[in-house]
Amino acid sequence: MLLTIDKLSKKYKDHVAVKELTLSIEHNQCVALLGPNGSGKTTTLSMLSGLLTPTSGKIVFQGGTTINRHEIGFLPQYPAFFSWMTATEYLHFAGKLSNLSKKELQKKSNEMLYFVGLEDAKNKRIGGFSGGMKQRLGLAQAMLHDPKLLILDEPVSALDPSGRRDVLQMMMELKKKMAILFSTHVLHDAEQVCDHIVMLKEGTVKWAGSLDDLRKRNTEETFILSTEEKLEDWLKSKQYIKEFILTSQTSAELKL
Ligand code: ADP
């Protein structure tokens, strides 16, 4: 097992944001943390990435109780980019924090910019980047040091359909190389990329299992459980997805 979380809890003063959360991730497994706003996704991922200290519970990473920062890649929900930096300068800046040598940094940042499709923009300033380009740069930063686990907090939520498609496709490529834990409030995003889903509600796991198990369940029930939205909203979102697929150039690759 790559990562095991046992009864992890986080309290903000009197408010319990995450309550006795238990889950595990195997090497090269892709797990989606699915839940509505306020269900505890960011709090959970922040504890795993070391930004927040748990109130109680245990995190075991590769058999040890300390998470080696260099083996985790983290993309926060709102990454802080410096708009005056070029994409390459940003990766070199981020890479220094990961203790990579100058030579390694040069090689890895070129490789990663190529992987995320920003090779042509590598000497352009981040200030002129679209949301999708910024998110792809964020992915490049998170992967720079070849982590074993990639933690992505709502990586596609703020993106338009084309940015969303690009980043989801990139995640599908990445999951062949490393384990991914990502949060989303959209079931369709989780379905596309991951084989395992953990549904959070009010800080606790309401359901966890494989995508196949999820498909066997009543769709309406599952959706309401995961997002607390009404069926009409669900149908609207499906309509939106259909429109998105029709306008997408790679529609054949994105099946509903
Ligand atoms: P999600 O990522 O699923 O939207 P969060 O982890 O951000 O959920 O929040 C879980 C709960 O904790 C929410 O009720 C939120 O209001 C609360 N919360 C999050 N951050 C803080 C904070 N810094 N101080 C107090 N309460 C917080």
TrEMBL record:
The keyword Transport applies. One of its GO terms (molecular function) is ATP binding. It comes from the Bacteria. Keywords: ATP-binding, Nucleotide-binding, Transport. Residues 3-227 form the ABC transporter domain. Belongs to the ABC transporter superfamily. This is ABC-2 type transport system ATP-binding protein. The lineage of its organism: Bacteria, Bacillati, Bacillota, Bacilli, Bacillales.
